[in-house]
Fold this protein.
Amino acid sequence: MPGPALHLAVELDGDGAHPAAWRRAAHSPDQLLTPRRVAHLAAVAENAGFTLITLDDGVLPPGAAPDPVGRIGAVERAAFVAASTSTLGIAPVAPLTYAEPFHVAGQLASLDHISAGRAGWVVKEEDRPEAARAWGRPLVGDAAARARESRDGVEVARALWDSWEDDAVIRSVATSRYLDRDRLHYIDFTGQTYAVKGPAIVPRPPQGQLVVLGHPDAVPADRLDVALVTGRDRAAVAAAAADAGTPLVFAEVEVALDTPDATGAERVADLERDAPWSDRGRLRHTGPAAQLASLLEGLSGIVDGVRLHPLVLDEDLPVLARLVLPALTERRRITRPLPGTSLRSTLGLRRPANRFAVAATQEDAR
């Protein structure tokens, strides 16, 4: 018996999951940093029926010489894509290892307003020592310390999103009042390395809380909406999903599909002459689109969604859009976002109540 419908996400950073993917890209290297490029990829993903896209990021360049390196900030790319799409969820990576959570929370809240409630957030760590120098901050050197920064940063961001109640904005011309100051709140967070008082400088996001995605080994499960889990086979993915402890679980899957010009294996071998495709412990499919559709259908009883990492975006994304997603749609194995719905609604997540409004109601009841 087939499992429930899947949500499909796709990573659209750079030219693909392989470090030498640019060698098979259908554009010149200079186009990688143009808005037209990211808008095109997002349009293909939205028209295909993906639930959301993710955009990787970090303070350091995403590669090394002699490969072309560089990227526009993920939040900036996400804001551009938000204005040119209507149903697609958009989740940029925003590391918290060195960034100020107050500013990250404000940027992401703004993104949710721009997208009318379609924003998410992928929490990731900056684990290279060079990142500390780039930020001009002391090194956060060990895994436990980086996990602490992510944990505290997510807690601060979630509190700041609640620091404005939903009806805090009045915009009353008659009384010349813009805000109800009684509906703005200080969060008074004190952690091991910093303190934040608040409130935020951006009104509460349309979703109340953005959808937060991350790896449960780096961010506590109670601070995540979606756990991103890895595993080299179905059994390992199932075990990781069972241990996640989050409302939703997405499996990480790398794909190298057969195209009209070459098989997936041939394409991988071609790129391997320039650089190895590192093993990140993810499930990996190399081969026909039909087999990938069957693999994803089999995962539907194990996880709630899958985030795909295509080998080369210009080659694999068209195959996904033309063969894989239509096959899964025909079998009713994936869900397609509907116009006017938030990302939380699409994923089946309730809109959370504001913690300060709830506290006030409980106090009044006493």
In short: The two ends are 51 Å apart (CA to CA). The chain has a mean pLDDT of 93.
